Amino acid sequence: MTKDPKTPPPPSDEEAERLLALEVDLIRRAPESQIEPSLDRVRAVLDLMGSPETSFPAIHVAGTNGKSSTTAMIDALLTAYGLRTGRFTSPHLETIRERIRLDGEMIDAGRLLAAWEDLAPFIVMVESDGGRALTFFEVLTLLAFAAFADAPVSVGVIEVGLGGSWDSTNVVTPPVGVVLPVGLDHMDWLGDDLATIAGQKAGIIKPGMVVVLAEQEPAASDVLLEKAAEVGAVVLREGIDFGVVDRQVALGGQLLTLRGVGGTYEDVFLPMHGEHQAHNAACALVAVESFLGGGAGALDGDAVGEGFAAVTVPGRLEVIRRSPAVLLDVAHNRPGMEALVEAVTGSFSFTRLVGVVGVLNDKDAEGMLSALEPLLAEVVITRSNSPRAIDPDDLGALAADIFGEDRVVIEHALPDALEKAVTAAEDSGDLGGVGVLVTGSVTVVGQARALLRSRR
Question: I need a labelling partner for 260 at 20 to 30 A (CA). Which of 183, 324, 373, 378 fits?
Fold first, then answer.
């Protein structure tokens, strides 16, 4: 079982009641999966508040997969250098407080509620002026900026929610930006080909910025490089200016040699699994090099080692239980699922792995299941309580076409699905070599995580 580090004390009864009221207000708003081509509402609120987003420099992180992991790595490295950090990520697994972190810690209830008290009157002013109500994600972005300014933080590490150009986080003008690999996801909102989606991600690239560019497909790379040249941004490219020199699987993670723009860092332990996380680490390293010194010299090796060793990202190949092992991973598109399969294959030695899978209705369910099929002995199809979840009967029929009917079980209730998968793993009689993998959507993983943690 894993233990969450740096967990603040639970809210008081009075704070819990106020947090519930806040969450109800947020849920009534347009969901974060919807974006509109305007930052006017967010800017209007920020102007009324005195522009809290300008009170700290930031590192802005975009891309299709790996954003939360990379922002956590950047946060940990900056913390190792003694800087006070504010981190904003999405989505959350169990509570909205996970999205806003100070010094790596989930924001405590009192600070979040204080930020809401400061923010709410300005939201009312903007919404009463005849404009459309702010969305769920716009309000959370504003809450993060208000909390960071109040702390105050030395640097913000800001993850893009969806896309880039019209994402509410794109009101910041940071010195450093990161664009992780661009893939096909959120196609209803961002476009149906890599070039169009990359155009949305490129929206975070601003004049004078240092852009840390992960390895990309040519169609995406061309668009991103064109935007950087257009605005006069400095580009550092993975595979050319920096990269992963060596990677060895190690107990609890991997041992890396990373080439930054300021130097080479050997024997860096990263407590995360998978080659994709090594590449995320390289991007995080160069982002911090660029932020702290423009890449003019190497960072302190001890601080780099300390920072990477402290990284924790729940729900990213997280081992939540043992005997049998239960792993959680939020992969929710085909590229993410392919990276997950590679990571499990390369880092674990399961003789039998049972899947628990639930997918949302705007995702490539067929592609995800096809990527998973070679890894799983059988799969239990289920759903989260999200209204966007695919009905298990429909997803199960698709899974049967891919896995074969004899390898597919359907359980409509997630607790029953977890129980079924654990029992199937235990029935093999080899607890040391069997495991359960819960994946397919953030909502399934988040709810499974809460259930499994409550059973401890």
Answer: 183
Domain boundaries, the chain: 13-309, 316-454
Is the pLDDT assigned to residue 25 strictly greater than 60?
yes
Q: By the 8 A CB rule, do 176 and 287 touch? A: yes
Amino acid 285 reads: L
Cβ atoms of residues 288 and 77 within 8 Å: yes
Q: Is the pLDDT of residue 184 over 60?
A: yes
Burial pattern 175-203, b for ≥16 Cβ within 10 A else e, equals bbbbbbbbbbbbeebbbeebeebbbbbbb
* Per-residue burial over 207-218, b = 16 or more CB atoms within 10 Å of its CB, e = otherwise: eebbbbbbbbee
Paired sense of beta strands 253-259 and 243-250, if any: antiparallel
Sequence-distant (≥ 6) Cβ neighbours of residue 315 within 8 angstroms? 93, 328, 329, 330, 442, 445, 446, 449
pTM for this one?
0.94
DSSP string, 390-447: PPHHHHHHHHHHHH-GGGEEE-SSHHHHHHHHHHHHHTTS-TTTEEEEEES-HHHHHH
Per-residue confidence band for 187, with pLDDT thresholds at 50, 70 and 90: low
Extract the tokens encoding 383. Answer: 């759903």
Structure confidence at residue 7 as a pLDDT band (50, 70, 90) = low
CATH topology of domain 316-454: Protein-Tyrosine Phosphatase; Chain A (3.90.190)
Following DSSP, what letter does each residue of 4-29 receive, concatenated?
Answer: -TTPPPPPPHHHHHHHHHHHHHHHTS
195 vs 186: CA distance, rounded Å:
14
197-256 pLDDT, tens per residue? 999 999 999 999 999 999 999 999 999 999 999 999 999 999 999 999 999 999 999 999
Q: What is the CATH number of domain 13-309?
A: 3.40.1190.10
Task: Report how far residue 330's alpha carbon sits from residue 315's, in angstroms, rounded to the nearest whole number.
Answer: 6
